[in-house]
Amino acid sequence: DMVIDGVGKFIDFRKYLGMAAEKGAKEASKHAEQTLSDILRE
């Protein structure tokens, strides 16, 4: 059924977005720490 298939893809997409957001948050905080330590070192 096309509707079921579409819903499955949507759920996968949301799961992927959640993982990407989590990874992005980790990357962003790592980047912020790096920037902050660079500023403090000057």
Helix and strand topology:
Layout: H1 2-41
What does this structure look like?
This protein is mostly helical and 42 residues long. It has 1 helix and no strands. The longest helix is centred in the middle third of the chain and has 40 residues. 0% of the residues are buried.
Summarize the structure.
The chain is an all-alpha fold and 42 residues long. 95% of the residues lie in helices and 0% in strands.
Order of helices and strands: H
Taken as a percent bin, the fraction of beta residues is under 5%
Radius of gyration, CA atoms, in whole angstroms: 18 Å
Helix content: over 70%
Summary keywords:
95% helix; 1 helix; 42 residues
